[in-house]
Structure formats: C-alpha cells, structure tokens
Specification:
By secondary structure, the chain is an alpha+beta fold. The protein is built from three helices and six strands; from the N terminus they run βααβββββα. It is elongated, with a radius of gyration of 16 Å.
Length: 137
C-alpha cells in the first residue's frame, strides 16, 4: 500500500486561545493532505465539477495524541484502500511532528458520490489510480 506524504507548517491562524491547534483544525489539515493527493494525480475541483463524481466523508475518527503549536513543521502520511463494499474508501492518516512523534491519527470513511443522482458509486478508474486503491485483505 502506497504512502502519500504531505508536509506543511502550522500557521498562527490555525491556533486557538490556548496557543495550540484547535481540534477542528486537525480535520482541515487532514483534508489538505487528501486534496494534495488528488491535485498531484490530476484530479482537482474542476475534474470533480466536470465529471459530477466526488468524495463525501461518511465517517471520521480522530485520536489526538500530541499538541501542535505555531510554526511546528509536520508531515501527514496517508494510506488508502477500498473496503469490501467496493464503493467505500478508507483513508488512514497520521500527523507526524518534526521529532517523529505522532500528533494525531485519523481514519476517514469516504464514498464516491454521483453528484447528479446523489448516490454512491464505485470509484472511477482515475480515482482508483490516484489513490492506488487495492481491495482489503
């Protein structure tokens, strides 16, 4: 299973009154990493609007392990797989601090939605290639 790596720096606008990243901002950081995978493979917002097929989050589970502060350099590592239902994707992500410690772990369950019929569909070939999807063992 391929690991996708996205690096970024925590900005001041991501901090809360405690001087660390607010829990909701972690979801945005994870999402930025997922968009990076799509953009790098040629699937971006314009492709989604053109094909009328795109991902929707069905479930999110986040474990917060270490505090993130302003200017922390982080790496988000993502792995993807298709579940037994063949229309549902699972993306595991970790935010890793510069010292190698895991700041947060998340599991996202996504479906590919046909935006016209408003129904889930199997991932199109270009999506399967972008995420290098393989069936679950």
């Amino acid at each position: 299973m391929k690991e996708f790596v996205y690096k970024t720096k925590i900005q001041e606008n991501q901090l809360d009154v405690f001087g660390h990243v607010n829990n909701a901002r972690y979801l945005e950081i994870f999402e930025s990493a997922r968009w990076d995978i799509l953009e790098d493979s040629g699937i971006g917002l314009s492709h989604i609007q053109k094909t009328k097929i795109g991902p929707v989050i069905l479930e999110a589970n986040v474990k917060y392990k270490k505090e993130l502060k302003g200017r922390d350099l982080i790496t988000i590592v993502s792995t993807c797989k298709i579940t037994d239902k063949h229309a549902i994707l699972r993306i595991d992500q970790q935010i890793i601090k510069e010292d190698g410690k895991i700041a947060a772990e998340a599991v996202f369950t996504l479906g590919m939605m046909n935006l016209e019929s408003r129904k889930l569909v199997a991932p199109p070939v270009e999506w399967a290639k972008a995420f290098e999807l393989v069936p679950s063992p």
